[in-house]
Structure formats: C-alpha cells, structure tokens
Amino acid sequence: MGIDGRAFSSPAAGVRRYVSALVPALKAVDPGLELVALGGNRDAMPADLAHVGEPWHPPTNLGWSAMGLPRAAARARVDVIHAPSYTAPLWSSAPVVLTIHDVSYERHPEWYPYQRDAMRRMFYRRSARSAARVLTDSEFSAGEIAAAYQIPRERIAVAPLGVSDHFAPVDRPNGTIAADITSPFLLHVGDLHERRNLGLVVHAMFEAQRRPGMPQLSLVLAGVDRGIGDRLRGYAREAGSPDAVVCLGPVTDSQLLTLYRGATALVYPSRYEGFGLPVLEAMACGTPVIASRAASIPEVLGDAGILLDPDDEPGWAEAIAEIVSDEWQKGRMRKAGLARAKEFTWARTASITLEAYRQVAPARMGSRRS
C-alpha cells in the first residue's frame, strides 16, 4: 500500500490529523500490511513507516500529482495508492483510493472565491471520478459527493473518523494558553471561515450575558483566520466588550487539549461540515457541545449535546445561558459526550479503509482478509 506522504505535512490541520492517526491504526488492525509513504517530508512521518523519496517533478502541486506521485508509486511497486486529501495522481498503474472529506467548495463555491478557477475544480472532479474507490467521513458527505460528481453511491465508502486517546477529561483543568483568556469561556476550534457562521455565536453570547446573574463571557477561537476575524472582533467592540473575542490562530496539540478541558462549552454553529472532528474531540474531553443541526454534525453529536438551527440566535443564547448556569445540565452532557465519543475509534476507521483497499485490489490483497 502506498499513501501520499505529502499529507503528513499538509497545510490543512484536519488532513494532518487524519493521516497521522490512520496510519498507525492500519498497522495495528493488519500488522502484515506493507505500508509505504510516497514522497513528502520524512521528518513529519512516523519513524517506523517505510518511505520512498520524491522523484523529480515540476515544483508545484499539479506537478506532484502529474509526475511525482505516479513515479514514486511505480518505484515502490505498490498494489494500491491511497490519496488521503481530495486529489489523486493524474495517472497510475495501480488503483487509487481517494479520501474526500467534504465537497463544500463544489456545493457552495460562493464561500471559496479562490477555488472558483476552472482548472482547480476540474482537477478535483477528475480525481473523484477516476478513483477506484472514494472514502469519506459521513453519510452526509457521501450523498454530497455522489451529487456533486455524479458518482454511483456504491463506489463511496463511509469511514467515520476516530478520536485519539490524547483527548481525555481531567478533574481539574490546568495550563495557560494566553493571558487574555479567563473563565468562563466558550470555545470554537477550526479555521475562521464564512461557512462556520461564527457571527451568530458572538451575538448569541452577548444576548445570553444580558440575563440576570450571568458572568462575563468570552469566545476563544483556535484556528487560522480565513478573513473574518476582524469582523468578529468588530462585533465585540460594538457591544462594548472588545476583549470578549479572542483569536488565537493555530494552536499546538497540548494547547488544544488545555482549551477543550478548560472551556465551558464548545460552540460549533457551522453550516457545512464533512464530519466535525472538534465536536468529537470536545466530547472525548468531557466538554459540553452546542452545535448546528446541519450537514454531518448530527451524525457525530447524536443526542449527547444540544443541536440547534444555525440561524436560531435566540435559541443559541438560551443554550449558552443554560450551560453556563446549570451545573446539572453540564454534568449530564459531560457524561453523555464521553459515552458517545467511545463509539468513534480509529480502529473502525482503519478496518473500513482496509476493506476499501481490498475491494480495489482483490487478486493481490484478498488473501489478507481475516
């Protein structure tokens, strides 16, 4: 099995987390699986993972897909190529399993002005339609991919993501992220992007704060600012609390863990997600979750948190006030979230992924079925 090694140092944190968790899970589920990273930064990969260096190719992502990745796969003589991040090699002598986490860029191009160029979107479409098997994270995304690219649904396998043992609760959270973060605070994890609908939470937080007995709240945002941070801080200034919105930018794994453990709640008002990994990570840490009843999010959260319409600002204000003031509700959601998170394991993700490999290369890998 060859896996695109560039995914280990992808600029997208979610892709890095996916491939870094999936690879050891694959090897644990099938210790005899011969797995090799094709290209990429060797230092970003597990030390025990075999690696084939990048052959010469034009120094662009397209050059890698057109020449570098196929040549690396041929050099390694792999049976199957796993492209774990949206784009597949332009040609290959081995069948390709392609992971597409979501198709928000295809279904809602208005959110991605830089994605509107015809060449980029044609490449995504070609990758999806040429893959022998497509993997995705949720039933919602499977339906979206089938609709966006006219792919038969039976060619798409759903492999829900897992949660690392790293994300676990503690009785007394400790650790400092930044001097301007004080409890209680609401947390959002993920890029600050138009589809994340974060203005709703800012307005709902200030609405909740107007209720008698409510403490001062802040909203802590952990993720790359994709162009809306100034607007969110502007809402806080207009409300007379300029320090109530804290934009941290990208954070380390240890900082993220401290944030989850210290937050009063994770707020996730997104309009579109292929999975929503922060929802799962927060539950695993025992953090209550308030999230949108939209896209894939209900598949992840189930009834372990509060699901609301992404446009229901009064409802969000009510939910925030309840979580902040009601210790019984917080305890109930903590217990329910921990139980729900246990249902999502990387071993399950790996098992479904291995089955996809076997389905596209049955003659060579079928005998490995256990």
SS content category: alpha/beta
By CATH, the topology of the largest domain is Rossmann fold
Oligomer: single chain
Q: How many β strands by DSSP?
A: 13
H-E string:
EHEEHEEHHEHEEHEHEHEHEHEHHHH
Radius of gyration: 21 Å
- Describe the largest sheet: 7 strands, parallel
Helical amount: 40-55%
- CATH C-level label of the largest domain: Alpha Beta
Q: What is the terminal-to-terminal distance?
A: 17 Å
What strand line-up does the widest sheet have?
Answer: 3-2-1-4-5-6-7
CATH architecture of the largest domain: 3-Layer(aba) Sandwich
Structural shape:
elongated
Number of helices in the DSSP assignment: 14
Task: List unreliable stretches of 5+ residues.
Answer: 366-370
Overall domain count: 2
Within CATH, the superfamily of the largest domain carries the name Glycogen Phosphorylase B
Note the beta-strand portion.
5-15%
What key attributes describe this structure?
41% helix; 7-stranded parallel sheet; 13 strands; 2 domains; alpha/beta; single chain; Rossmann fold; 370 residues
Provide a brief overview of the structure:
This protein is an alpha/beta fold. It has helices spanning 13-29, 61-76, 104-107, 118-130, 139-149, 198-209, 229-238, 253-262, 277-284, 297-301, 313-325, 327-341, 346-360, 362-365, and strands spanning 2-4, 36-38, 50-52, 81-83, 96-99, 133-136, 156-158, 185-189, 218-222, 245-249, 265-268, 289-292, 306-308. The strands form two sheets. Strands 3-2-1-4-5-6-7 form a seven-stranded parallel beta sheet, sandwiched between helices.
